[in-house]
Model the fold of this input.
Amino acid sequence: MQPPFLDIIGIDSKGTQSTGELRESMKVSYANKSFFGIFLSCMFFSLVALNGCAGLKQRWGEERTRGKEILLAKDVTNVHPFWCGRQAALVYSTESDGIFRHDIETGSAVNVAEWGTVPLSCTPDGEWLVYMDKQTVRHDKGTVERGIVNLWRYEFKTGRRQRFVIANDTYVSSADKAIFPPHELKLYLGGRPNERIKMPGPEWEVVWSQRKGLATVWFSDGSAVFGAYWDPELRKYILEAEVFDPEIRIVDIYPPFKSFWPFLTDKQNRVYMTVAEDVGARIERCAIDLKEKKLSCGVVLKNKHHIRGFDVFSDGETIVFTRDDDRCAKVMRVGEKKAECITTSRYLMGNYVVLSPDDKWMAFTVFRKAANGNYYVNDLYILNLKD
Done:
């Protein structure tokens, strides 16, 4: 049954205050997720880099350790940062002040939304940010699993903030932050609800998903979107594609892996999946034949421990990653065995490495002991890869 929408009218401002009890419960929620919510999603939520890698190779190695890394923010949440549209602007959230958009070129940062909100996606042109208000998660009659949640949007040019739609919290929490098709201003959400609110202007087209699976990984040309769902009869995950060209249809594909999760595509329309193993994990890169419903996959990275962060340069053959047993982010050509450190070795690496659309910048998180020494917090750094 689809969750009904509440009769809420779009408004222009929002002043919700969080309570201490809610703040603590949400922090526990961020830190304690299910296997696929934290082990897979948090490790691999990253955006696809789409431009050239020229001039990078000669800068790897010793020169990379000469203080080019810049601390952007301390105490960021365990919600993956992402680049806003095709601009050199990074979106992230902090434990105390909520969501920020940081313009790397100018150094200016805008506090978009308060604590208790989670950034989802920028529009492809980078003009708007969509985020959800986790404080509004609720279970109304007829809603499914985790209920429904309010979505807001923020226009960077004007500072306008609008509550504009309500969504299935289960879906948007697992959407890999890619709810806009590449190059299109269409909002892609889960199953169509029984009721809808009137969207304030400007109105956006909403595409309601026909899939039952979670995760949202787009082909770079926007022709199909991928996710995964658990088949209780087969007792394995199924790769599910919603294809939009030439007509909308659902295609189920059966990979030779029992447990996997799609998390990234590259410019060549290949899908990257993390595959759980008895010990550790590996990343498979798969070319997909939608007509024949077949996969052609190959291992691009394997580790006996957890692979934390992963991204691909726009050449499609150079990867950057972090692992449990590494003290730096590493870069490597697919098919090669030796990986080089691209950051200094003084860090305990966090869960994310994220390349900018032009391959110029890399954002990454590191763990740091809190002041009382009882737990670790996340700090966000950026690294200039070309200048």
